[in-house]
Amino acid sequence: MSRRLAREVAFKVLFTIDVGSNDPDFALESAFGEEDLSRKNRDYVTQVVRGALNNQEEIDGLIRKYLHGWELERLSGVVRNLLRLALFEIKYREDIPSKVSINETLELAKTYHGMDSAKFINGILDKIAKRIQEDGSFIKN
Question: What is the pTM of this model?
């Protein structure tokens, strides 16, 4: 399974936890039971999900700064969790270029929510990624 598909699984797990109020361990195990993932991709999914959850307060704070005229809680669960996934990768995963995170997230947005949401997400992620690069606020584990 490619990183792209593993990223999609990570998004689905984050969505399930957020919207369905599921326990993270249960959501991860359910996803692993449904998908035939390599050990490397299971590790990636687990790291991204746990990392996004552990840093959710900071990630959500970043999102809120750039949501002009919107509230985070009013965004669809798809958009909210795609933003969280991408921002975790952009801010904490040195091995993943920001452009890759953004492009992959936009493809997921088009699949799960449509072109308009992809444009909305792109605007937010692009601004945040540029700001993170400008001020050097990467927090790489």
Answer: 0.92
Which residue is associated with the tokens 């801010």?
A: 91
Whether residue 141 is contained in a domain is answered as no
DSSP structure class, residue 55 = T
Domain with residue 62: its CATH number is: 1.10.940.10
Q: In total, how many domains does the chain have?
A: 1
Dist. CA 64–CA 87, nearest whole Å: 12
Q: What is the pLDDT of residues 51-86, one digit of tens each?
A: 999 999 999 999 999 998 889 999 999 999 999 999
Angle at which helices 115-135 and 77-92 cross, to 10°: 30
